[in-house]
């Protein structure tokens, strides 16, 4: 059974930081690209950041330079370090591996 479990969301003031984690089980983590998406109610889910099995990364323009995606194959975990947070970063953040999704973690950035 494949499981992706996100954690680390919460309430933070603008300019602050959060680190999201996604613990993965049931798939061969080291062979899979991983990604973080986010969704605001009423809007489409959008790609935030992705990392390949080899460690190559790409980011949405809106988070480039502020967010960093990383992975730890020893822990089967992918991270999203979010710095200089803005109110427009408020969303539910989801972890994705291949066709599988986590249930999401809410990030709220107050102004």
Topology:
Elements: E1 3-7, E2 10-13, E3 18-25, E4 34-39, E5 46-51, E6 57-59, E7 67-72, E8 77-82, E9 91-97, E10 100-101, E11 105-110
Parallel strand pairs: 2-11
Antiparallel strand pairs: 1-3, 3-8, 4-5, 4-9, 5-6, 7-8, 9-10, 9-11
Your description of this structure?
With 111 residues, the chain is mainly beta. Helices cover 0% and strands 53% of the residues. The protein is built from no helices and 11 strands. The strands form 2 sheets. Strands 2, 4, 5, 6, 9, 10 and 11 form a 7-stranded mixed beta sheet that branches. A 4-stranded antiparallel beta sheet has the order 1-3-8-7, with no helix packed on it. It starts with a strand and ends with a strand. The mean pLDDT is 97.
Percentage of residues in helical conformation: under 10%
User: Into which percentage range does the β-strand content fall?
Assistant: over 45%
Our Rg estimate from Cα atoms comes to 13 Å
Largest sheet: 7 strands, mixed
Total number of helical segments? 0
Point out poorly predicted stretches.
none
What is the 3D form? globular
The average pLDDT value, as a whole number, equals 97
Separation of termini?
Answer: 40 Å
Write down the secondary-structure element order: EEEEEEEEEEE
| Alpha-beta content class | mainly beta
* Strand runs, count: 11
Short note summarizing the structure:
It contains no helices and eleven strands. With 111 residues, it is an all-beta fold.
Features:
single chain, 111 residues, mainly beta, 7-stranded mixed beta sheet, 4-stranded antiparallel beta sheet, 11 strands
